[in-house]
Write a structure and sequence with these properties.
- The structure holds 3 protein chains of 3 kinds.
- By secondary structure, chain A is mainly α.
- Chain A has 13 helices and 2 strands, in the order H-H-H-H-E-E-H-H-H-H-H-H-H-H-H.
- Chain A has helices spanning 2-32, 39-57, 59-85, 90-112, 139-161, 163-173, 175-180, 185-210, 217-232, 237-254, 261-267, 271-277, 292-303; strands spanning 128-132, 135-138.
- A two-stranded antiparallel sheet of chain A has the order 1-2.
- Chain A is globular and about 70 Å long.
- Chain A starts with a helix and ends in a 10-residue tail after the last helix.
- Chain B folds into 2 domains: 13-290, ABC transporter involved in vitamin B12 uptake, BtuC; 315-416.
- Chain B is built from 17 helices and 4 strands.
- Chain B has helices at 2-21, 24-49, 58-75, 87-105, 110-127, 132-135, 156-179, 181-198, 203-229, 239-252, 259-277, 281-295, 299-314, 316-348, 350-355, 377-404, 413-416; strands at residues 141-142, 231-232, 365-367, 370-372.
- Chain B has a two-stranded antiparallel ribbon. In chain B, strands 3-4 form a two-stranded antiparallel ribbon.
- In chain B, strand 3 (365-367) and strand 4 (370-372) form a beta hairpin.
- The radius of gyration of chain B is 24 Å and the shape is globular.
- The interface between A and B is large, with 44 and 46 residues.
- Chain B: Its main location: membrane.
- Chain B: It is found in: Cell inner membrane.
- Chain B: Pfam families: BPD_transp_2.
């Protein structure tokens, strides 16, 4: 029971965090047709910037500042890099973002070294929120979840209730027509990119303190975020939310499940044989928890490539 | 055309006599170069020719490697496959794996295809350490090259010639493929898959075949790696290797057959040479890739072709001013960038940071044979000024280059833009 | 060539390339204040391309487009739109993920000097159907309703010149009549219109002047009567 509750909570919160990062990515893809490899790098830069600034201005300001700075980075990337190769096609843009990810990761290693840094939750936030059966549940975890929910709410309101939101949604659907109606679509692209990046940065600034902050975090998270975006449907915010929660929960639960094919076969009486076979048979779900999202993505790509909530084509 | 054939012959000759001239360490580097070149060439069959960008190609390289190693241990030089023929196992492993993976991946196109290949590679990467019999778990598997055909394959030279033979053969086969009807169809796949469908071709089957062939040759490269290193472990499936082949291929140029070969050879060579001199080699590689993507989309090979086209039109003398400026500008700019990065690397390194004591001036770092103080203006002004100088010279080079292109028919600059590829920055 | 010094929209020697394909070979076209000009010709003659070039959606390789003397060539589409040119595309291009009302709001702009002002209320009065459907997703509208929507949407930008591309394509005869009437009403209220229309009868009925395009050039310009009188011309450039 305890395992269930804790995994549920953890899964939801991890999912919400994933959503903060993937929301920007899916919006950018829907709008510009570019799958931004560098998006997860924004997450990483957010963490590292917050870590650096924290020593100077304190935790809260550091988080806010790093969010803004990463947003600016996003704007620079869109304006000076992506826009330049736009005419060469989507594959080219994809490759450019790929190269940028590479560079950002190497620059991080240059300045901060190859290993993780001591970015920790500050003392004033490091306490238990409540008790789940016998364990303390950290307040900071809840904080991350709440911030993500607030962000989601804000984006939702912005997109559906404001004029800017209407323009963004229209531009996602038909950018040329939106521009022919007098809207500065290039500016909208830049702004969406920047905000998407800022969200990733915010997620990084928050999560980096709780989880680890190291030069590999972009790659590790990046692949998961791709999975989320593909499973949810490229361009759909609702899809990103659903997929994020799904994957968050699966990852969370899978880590605690020590079952394997052998245990399943054990129910049928073939347990010993399976144990002897070894290899795939004795592979525990917990060990391959990390691969389940990929399997899910493969499944979706084959059955319903536009994703759970994506539009066809 | 004649010139190309002569150049290729000279290159081949140089490769043949290489072990006699170079020291053993360089021969090892050369082996790595050859393997990387083949891998890139195989990758380009899928990517440049077939138009399918795969982000997980290291999987097939790795499978080829492991398959060959298993064969090495199992056969031990006897039986049907003596050591020199072992890469065939790598080929087979790569082909079968490519067939399966390709069948899934090619069901979708574009970005989705790329994501599937990425997912497959990552899946393999995550699973491999758990599958002990196949992949040897975390430690991997190792074997020994068995003697065959009168050779003992004990030293680098023999391995080098074996590798050279396979690489030349494979690349020749890959080239021959582009001349076959099937090869032409591959280009058509890239240009307009839809059209092919309407013409009655089974596009999916075509794609799977191209994928499998590309994986097969990647498997050969993996097999050669297995023979060379006599070991393999799951790290081969790491994203890094898939990324590297993508970078190498595009830096070389996807539209020219030998482009990826050029790119991979250069990058591997510099990687080997530079890794002793600098810790930031990967950063340079990434920067080069981004520069190529932004300013020379047809890669280094495309650049070479562009220049040789001008030489043919105007003669060697005419291009000298532009060439000189370009080289000078690029050189100075590179120097500035390297200076800056190396300085930063040293200042931020752990060893240096440990030396820092509060309220004391930061100690000097040595670079290019001189001592530079991080606090001094000169240390930062030098790369800045060099960089600006380099950019200005490059701007001049661009001017001169555009003047060379002068009597191309132009309607207006807007129409000119998309047509001129490989333009100098 | 209509060299009135009071031309509202002047297209001079317009060339457009699609890659290496030379599609427009020096188009000269002028629209005066409060005129409806039809652009006729077979498919492929370059009529839609001309409109897209004016709107900046396709870059001109040479030539000039001016609105009341102001040079618009080479500007981005949103600037051209803000200068006072509206565009109703052949494909309609409604924003299917937005409601009817949101679509209309997307088109709203403040009127520039000399432009007629329009309001959303007026649109709903013109086409009560749209008011009924104001909260429906635009993707759920019928063809005719979508055409109404896209027409109103562009009109709400208060343009001085409205470019309309094949508005009656694929519509039932009853709706075609409604569209034709709408065009007349828009004209009556002071907006100049450049109309590409396949249905010759409609075009001749609503226009004050017609231009015929062939192979990327203007091959005839004159009154509707002059066109119908010239049987040879009709056969050479318009007959299928």
């Amino acid at each position: 029971m305890e395992f269930l509750t804790v995994s549920l909570l953890n899964g939801v919160i991890y999912g919400l965090l994933l959503f903060m990062v993937s929301a920007g990515l899916t919006l950018i893809f829907g709008m510009m047709g570019v799958l931004n490899f560098a998006h997860a790098s924004f997450y990483m830069v957010g963490a590292y910037l917050a870590y650096t600034l924290q020593k100077v201005v304190g935790f809260t300001t550091a988080v806010v500042l790093s969010t803004v700075l990463v947003g600016l980075l996003g704007v620079i990337v869109e304006r000076f890099f992506l826009r330049r190769v736009h005419k060469h096609g989507h594959a080219h843009e994809l490759l450019l973002t790929f190269g940028l990810t590479f560079i950002i990761a190497e620059l991080i290693k240059l300045f901060y070294g190859n290993f993780s840094v001591e970015y920790r939750v500050p003392e004033f936030l490091n306490f238990a929120a409540f008790q789940v059966f016998s364990t303390d549940y950290p307040f900071y975890r809840l904080l991350m979840g709440v911030v993500s929910l607030l962000v989601f709410g804000l984006i939702y309101l912005l997109l559906t209730r404001t004029r800017v939101g209407i323009v963004v949604r229209a531009a996602i659907h038909r950018p040329q027509m939106a521009e022919a109606l007098g809207h500065n679509v290039p500016l909208v692209f830049m702004a969406v990119f920047g905000i998407g990046a800022a969200l990733a940065g915010l997620a990084g600034a928050l999560a980096g303190a709780f989880y680890t902050t190291n030069p590999n975090m972009a790659l590790e998270l990046g692949v998961i975020v791709f999975v989320v975006v593909v499973v949810g449907g490229l361009g759909s915010m609702a899809g990103a939310m659903i997929a994020s929660l799904l994957i968050g929960l699966i990852s969370s639960f899978a880590v605690g499940v020590d079952l394997s094919l052998a245990s399943l076969l054990g129910l049928l009486g073939a347990g010993d044989w399976a144990q002897q076979m070894g290899g795939l048979m004795t592979l525990k779900v917990s060990s391959v928890a990390a691969t389940i999202p990929f399997a899910l993505m493969l499944l979706i790509l084959l059955i319903r490539p536009s994703g759970l909530m994506g539009e066809k084509g | 055309m004649k010139l190309t054939k002569i150049l290729l012959a000279v290159l081949l000759l140089a490769l043949l006599v290489l072990p006699a001239i170079l020291p053993a360490a360089m021969v090892n580097a050369a082996i790595q170069m050859l393997i990387a070149a083949l891998f890139a060439c195989a990758f380009n069959l899928l990517c440049g020719q077939g138009g399918m960008l795969s982000f997980g190609h290291a999987a097939y390289f790795g499978v080829g490697s492991f398959a060959t190693l298993h064969a090495m241990s199992a056969l031990n030089g006897q039986g049907l496959l003596p050591t020199p023929l072992l890469p065939l196992i790598g080929a087979m492993g790569g082909f079968i794996c490519g067939l399966c993976a390709g069948w899934f991946a090619t069901k979708r196109a574009g970005v989705y295809f790329s994501m599937i290949t990425l997912a497959l590679a990552e899946l393999l990467h995550s699973l491999a350490p758990h599958l002990n019999t196949l992949f040897g778990g975390e430690a991997g598997i190792s074997s020994m090259r068995a003697p065959a055909w009168g050779l003992d394959f004990g030293d680098a030279t023999q391995v080098y010639y074996l590798t050279l033979g396979w690489v030349v053969l494979s690349i020749a086969l890959l080239y021959a493929f582009t001349l076959t009807p099937m090869g032409r169809l591959t280009f058509a796949l890239r240009e307009n898959g839809h059209r092919l469908q309407f013409l009655g071709y089974n596009v999916h089957r075509l794609r799977v075949l191209v994928f499998a062939l590309s994986a097969m040759f990647a498997g050969i490269a993996g097999g050669l790696q297995a023979l060379n290193l006599e070991s393999a472990n799951y790290v081969l499936f790491d994203m890094r290797f898939s990324a590297e082949v993508v970078l190498n291929t595009y830096i070389g140029g996807v539209n020219v057959f030998l482009g990826p070969v050029l790119g991979a050879a250069l990058m591997t060579f510099f990687g080997n040479a530079a890794s002793d001199l600098t810790q930031s080699w990967l950063l340079y590689q990434g920067l080069l890739f981004v520069l190529v993507m932004m300013f020379m989309p047809s890669g280094l090979a495309g650049l070479v072709l562009c220049w040789s086209a001008q030489i043919r039109r105007r003669g060697w003398l005419a291009i000298i001013p532009a060439a000189f400026s370009a080289l000078l500008g690029a050189g100075v700019l590179s120097l500035a960038v390297v200076f800056l990065i190396e300085t930063l690397q040293r200042v931020f390194s752990q060893d240096y940071q440990a030396l820092l004591m509060t309220d004391q001036a930061w100690p000097a770092i040595s670079l290019f044979g001189r001592e530079w103080l991080p606090g001094a203006l000169l240390t930062w002004a030098t790369p800045l000024l060099l960089g600006v100088a380099g950019l200005l010279v490059l701007k001049l080079a661009r001017h001169q280059w555009l003047r060379l292109l002068d009597d191309e028919p132009v309607v207006n600059a807007a129409a000119l833009r998309p047509r001129v590829e490989g333009e100098q920055p | 060539m209509n060299p009135t010094s009071q031309n509202l929209l002047s297209i001079s020697d317009l060339h457009v390339h699609y890659g290496k394909s030379h599609v427009l070979h020096g188009v000269d076209l002028h629209i005066g204040h409060n005129e409806v000009v039809s652009l006729l010709g077979r498919n492929g003659a370059g009529r839609s391309t001309t409109m897209k070039a004016v709107m900046g959606l396709v870059p001109p390789s040479a030539g000039s487009v001016q609105l009341a003397g102001r040079e618009l060539t080479g500007l981005r589409p949103y600037r051209i739109s803000r200068a006072g040119i509206g565009f109703v595309p052949e494909e309609r291009e409604v924003f299917a993920n937005l409601s009817v009302e949101e679509n209309l709001r997307m088109g709203q702009q403040a009127p520039t000097d000399g432009a007629t002002a329009w309001t959303v209320e007026q649109m709903f009065e013109f086409f009560p159907r749209l008011r009924e459907r104001r909260n429906t997703g635009a993707g759920n509208l019928s063809g005719g309703e979508q055409q109404m929507l896209t027409l109103c949407r562009s009109l709400l930008g208060c343009p001085r010149v409205l470019l309309i591309d094949e508005p009656t394509e694929g519509l039932a005869p009853k709706i075609v009549a409604v569209v034709a009437e709408a065009i007349r009403e828009i004209h009556r209220r002071g907006v100049s219109i450049l109309l590409v229309e396949q249905k010759l009868t409609i075009a001749l009925k609503v226009s004050s002047r017609v231009c015929v395009m062939g192979h990327g050039r203007i091959v005839f310009e004159g009154t509707p009567q002059a066109l119908t009188d010239d049987a040879n011309l009709m056969k050479e450039w318009l007959a299928v």
